[in-house]
């Protein structure tokens, strides 16, 4: 019985390249085994199996990615199985994504949620491999404005609305001003610096309003525009939070 070898070793031998370059071809999604793309350099292949480079194969430095997702209400936003991260599948990618990024397994390596959102809420969440993005949204998150739409039962007087705009202390965090306005008779718009989970519901309860639904529309300068519920896209290189 013929012995199997690592896919990277096979590619290096057949393409007359270094093992390092062979691994880059494989992790870049450019290698097929029996016609199926394989991205694991350590995959064992038998001599009878066909190994080939895809047309257009090239060695490239794959930059870390940041992914924007429209999380459905009722879905967890964390790094565990069953969370919004599971929506990052080719069939859920936003049509017209202009990033030019190819869907590769390695984009899940170290991919972390950096914008928590309540399970009951829907809207924009961000997962990233990029250190600069993580620092901006986590370490400097208190300086990043977010925008929400809250569907509520109840009404506010002008005085109550003005009081909300001054902010409210919550779980040890001092009150900071926020923008609160009626979008229509049942929907309030909030624009505030990175609220803690549960804060907007607390604000509504304190004002005698009942929160029915909450949706995050924007994080910093990046809106959710174009993302349908359950869809995702890559952050474009020029986009900044």
From TrEMBL:
Gene Ontology terms, MF aspect: 23S rRNA pseudouridine(2604) synthase activity; RNA binding
Presence of keyword RNA-binding: yes
Organism: Achromobacter arsenitoxydans SY8
Domain of life: Bacteria
Span of domain Pseudouridine synthase RsuA/RluA-like: 67-171
Keyword RNA-binding tagged: yes
EC number of this enzyme: 5.4.99.21
PANTHER family: PSEUDOURIDINE SYNTHASE FAMILY PROTEIN-RELATED, RNA-BINDING S4 DOMAIN-CONTAINING PROTEIN
Keywords: Isomerase, RNA-binding
One Pfam family recorded for the sequence: PseudoU_synth_2
Boundaries of every RNA-binding S4 domain copy: 5-48
GO biological process: enzyme-directed rRNA pseudouridine synthesis
PROSITE patterns assigned: S4
Catalytic activity: uridine(35) in tRNA(Tyr) = pseudouridine(35) in tRNA(Tyr); uridine(2604) in 23S rRNA = pseudouridine(2604) in 23S rRNA
Cross-referenced CDD domains: S4 (cd00165)
Name under which the protein is recorded: Dual-specificity RNA pseudouridine synthase RluF
Coiled-coil region: none
